[in-house]
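Structure first, sequence second, as always.
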């Protein structure tokens, strides 16, 4: 075991995260980090050193290890994105808290995101996807697949599920985009404040006039019974609304782009509807929309013969775990017939994505229908002209011009 003092400046370690140059491939520097060791040292924007976990087995073990903390409110919790450096101890429900608080919040929501309920909404998802494609085809090429299709699918779906008026979608989509893509903490705070105020009013309205959405159920089951207060209800609503469409937008767009760039693989999807779920799982592995997960060690932990010390920043690389040759043959090859089980596109452990069943339903219906109806879909611009989101954001194209 090596005892590594990791409390120096880390200036000799490469910067993390880095931007992709190909939408569905890791940044070029990342390939150099896939060596014999399952972890490597990197440097965050503020000069803080961090451990980057690159091994599939080691990453899964750590994501299930209670010695790693997700508590964003901890005064020395690592900050990866500059816009969040002045978060003032604010910890977001579900994603930024540890057990037992995390477990209590998750228990409130698990019944609403089960497989049975997600299967029940598949017909409405199919109807939504058909309408959007009808509109896109009626307008004719060229279309931006993000704004015309990839964004409204999860946005409408999460609104229907939560009971949020879709008529307000332009407002909360803009706030969400500004919040997760802000360049400064001031811009992020301003977007957060607007979104919080909107949801504060919506929760109050639902208390007075209950509907039949997930938020209405949460208010009836938990808020009225004193299991959570108004602020926590608003914050849970905010996390679900933003997370419920932000990552899935990118997954649909990036999945469509990957298939367009691998047209021979589209035949797998078209040949048998039963193959669609497997294609989606391989896309989730191959594209890794969520590039990394941030943690802090609460105790010393041995990883691959190295000691990660208490207080160290730990970044678990979803991208590199999903490209680990120890877990997958030819991991840099997109193979629609691959059995991609055990990928970590939705994370792992207690913080594994609560909405993964909804995301899978959206991806399977959106991508399966898209290429069934427009099998000749193709990029309308060269690949290197597709504008991409920064490395610290959920990965995906900002716009995706397509034709047919």
């Amino acid at each position: 075991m090596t005892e590594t003092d990791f409390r120096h400046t880390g200036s000799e370690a490469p910067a993390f995260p880095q931007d992709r140059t190909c939408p569905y491939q890791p940044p070029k520097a990342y390939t150099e980090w896939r060596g014999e060791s399952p972890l490597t040292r990197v440097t965050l924007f503020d000069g803080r050193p961090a451990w980057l976990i690159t091994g599939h087995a080691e990453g899964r073990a750590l994501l299930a290890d209670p010695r790693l903390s997700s508590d964003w409110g901890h005064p020395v919790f690592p900050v990866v994105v500059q816009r969040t450096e002045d978060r003032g101890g604010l910890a977001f429900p579900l994603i930024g808290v540890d057990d037992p608080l995390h477990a209590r919040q998750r228990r409130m929501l698990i019944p609403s995101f089960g497989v049975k309920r997600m299967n029940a909404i598949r017909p409405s998802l199919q109807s939504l996807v058909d309408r959007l494609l009808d509109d896109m085809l009626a307008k004719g090429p060229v279309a931006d697949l993000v704004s015309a299709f990839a964004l409204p699918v999860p946005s409408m779906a999460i609104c229907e599920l939560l009971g949020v008026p879709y008529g307000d979608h332009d407002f909360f989509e803009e706030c969400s985009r500004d919040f997760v893509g802000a360049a400064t903490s001031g811009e992020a705070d301003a977007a957060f404040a607007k979104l919080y105020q909107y949801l504060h009013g919506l929760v109050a309205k639902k208390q007075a006039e209950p509907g039949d959405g997930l938020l209405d159920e949460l208010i009836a089951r938990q808020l009225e019974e004193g299991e959570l207060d108004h602020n926590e209800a608003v914050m849970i609503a905010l996390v679900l609304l933003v997370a419920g469409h932000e990552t899935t937008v990118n997954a649909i767009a990036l999945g469509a782009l990957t298939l367009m760039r691998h047209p021979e693989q589209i035949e797998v999807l078209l040949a048998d509807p039963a193959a669609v779920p497997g294609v989606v799982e391989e896309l989730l592995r191959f594209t890794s929309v969520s590039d990394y997960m941030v943690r802090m060690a609460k105790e010393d932990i041995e990883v691959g013969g190295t000691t990660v010390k208490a207080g160290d920043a730990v970044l678990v690389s979803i991208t590199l775990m999903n490209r680990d040759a120890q877990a997958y043959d030819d991991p840099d090859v997109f193979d629609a017939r691959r059995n991609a089980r055990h990928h970590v596109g939705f994370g792992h452990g207690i913080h594994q994505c609560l909405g993964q069943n909804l995301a899978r339903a959206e991806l399977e219906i959106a991508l399966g229908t898209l290429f069934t109806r427009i099998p000749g879909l193709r990029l309308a611009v060269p690949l290197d002209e597709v504008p991409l989101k920064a490395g610290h954001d959920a990965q995906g194209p900002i716009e995706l011009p397509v034709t047919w």
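Margin note: The CA atoms of residues 56 and 326 lie 8 Å apart.
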